[in-house]
Design goal:
17 strands, 13% strand, Aspartate Aminotransferase, domain 2, alpha/beta, 7-stranded mixed sheet, 442 residues, binds D-serine
Length: 442
């Protein structure tokens, strides 16, 4: 095939695939804990001309011309972000949560420093992983990563053992420079109140990775990390905070200059200006509707967890009522493992992801087929689903995971359920079709 025909064939195919994807997601139960659906308002901001432009730097101090309106938009995003998180300093330029974390490492650590963070099976994100795992902290910033002692019954950081670890590292001349709270498998608030006074007395910087729970924090329904003593909070803007893909940093004025220069020029050249506009709209939505949304997300997660447990599934975090976040995590090792179940669910139009859980590595399990399945209810809650629907969702999950029911039957149940919840809620305006494919070409 000549290049022109090859190009045209693929050009056409991409649009067909995009339409198929939209149709599939409109008929699916979307339960990935790190995703969400954007409002039409956020989408409109994201497809604007800003996606083609350069700014670099801080509003009013750019490296490029043409920023008259871009600056005003970014300043609004910053002001909205400050109000949303009741914070002195917000940087909306990190283009991802990874970039936000790397900027914080740049600002507060030097290669060779020691940090403490969660191990991946206990909920840690790859950005605070060790060098041999290819983690950003270890492999990119050259940090020596130690892991928090973790209590898998409580599904939380062990406070006393963490203090003992810090003291041990100090006695070895490796006192941690920074401690990172937060994570990707995140059921309960982390013990900042219990650990921050101890860490501060040792002169240790406290970072909080709120990527997953940013919307719950913004809605005032999860722990408030800065008020509990964190120096800096990073996050992403597309999980429980339902904006476009991207990152952000929230902190204090006293760290503003060091953080700003750690973002640009250290880790971002041009930031994604269309996403800055989208973040501003998402922040405005959350300032208005965030409290109700965060409440609904957390009660839905709890209801889903309880309903699954009532059906005999092994739900993690039982000791404290399974969850206080958007996530529900179940042990599916007895049904073939998370990798197998993830595929079976996908065949039924349920999109969720496998996850390492505490005990997996000891049991010889691997991230390709770990013991856990992680789910988040933030997207289906944004479509307006409530407690009754969580019971239905639990039943559908049970039919696939345990009963191994014919996929066509479960697909039909999901289609019926999704038909009743097809528009984005908790937003100023909605056109009623959350997964509509938007065609701009004539
Ligand atoms: N890896 C993502 C998650 O799903 O938690 C976060 O970046």
């Amino acid at each position: 095939m000549d290049n022109k025909s090859f190009a045209k064939e693929n050009y056409t195919k991409i649009f067909e695939l995009l339409k198929e994807h939209h149709k599939w997601f409109s008929e699916s139960l979307t339960l990935i804990a790190s995703e969400n659906v954007m409002s039409e308002a956020v989408k409109e901001a994201v497809v604007s001309d800003l996606m083609s432009r350069y700014a670099e730097g801080w509003p009013g101090d750019r490296v490029y011309a043409g920023c008259k309106y871009i600056d005003q938009i970014e300043l609004s995003a910053i002001d909205l972000g400050k109000k949303l998180f009741d914070a002195e300093f917000v940087d909306v330029r990190p283009i991802a949560g990874v970039t936000a974390n790397l900027a914080v490492y740049t600002a507060f650590t030097q290669p060779g420093d020691t940090i403490i963070s969660l191990a991946i099976p206990n909920g840690g994100h790859i950005t605070y992983g060790k060098k041999d795992l290819g983690g950003t902290a270890g492999a990119v910033r050259g940090l020596n990563v130690e892991n928090f002692p973790f209590d898998s019954t409580e599904m939380n950081i062990d406070v006393d053992k963490t203090k003992a670890l810090v003291s041990k590292l100090k006695s070895e001349g490796r006192k941690p420079k920074m401690v990172i709270f937060g994570g990707s498998l995140f059921l309960f608030p982390h013990p900042l109140k219990e650990l921050v006074p101890f860490l501060k007395a040792e002169g240790i910087t406290v970072m909080y990775d709120g990527a997953h729970v940013m919307g719950l924090i913004a809605g005032g329904k999860f722990q408030q990390p800065l008020k509990e003593g964190a120096d800096v909070m990073t996050g992403s803007t597309h999980k429980t905070l339902p904006g476009p893909q991207g990152g952000l940093i929230v902190s204090y004025d006293k760290y503003a200059e060091v953080l700003k220069s750690a973002v640009f020029p250290s880790n971002v050249s041009n930031h994604h200006l269309h996403h800055v506009a989208g973040k501003a709209i998402a922040f405005a939505e959350m300032l208005n509707f965030g409290e109700d949304y965060a409440s609904a997300v957390i009660s839905n997660a709890k209801k889903l967890a309880e309903s699954l447990a009532a059906k005999g599934l092994v739900v993690l975090g039982e000791k404290y009522g399974y969850t206080k976040s958007h996530q529900v995590v179940i042990d599916v090792s007895m049904y073939g493992g998370g990798g197998i179940i993830e595929k079976e669910l996908e065949e039924s139009n349920i999109i969720a992801n496998r996850n390492l859980i505490p005990g997996d590595i000891k049991a010889g399990r691997h991230f390709r087929n770990p013991g856990g399945l992680r789910m988040g209810v933030q997207e289906i809650t944004r479509l307006g689903m409530g407690l009754n629907e969580m019971e239905e969702v639990a039943d559908i999950l049970y039919r696939v995971i345990v009963k191994k029911e014919d996929h066509n039957k479960t697909k039909e149940s999901i289609r019926e359920l999704k038909n009743k919840f097809s528009s984005v809620k908790y937003t100023f305006e909605s056109n009623g079709e959350a997964y509509k494919y938007i065609k701009i070409r004539i």
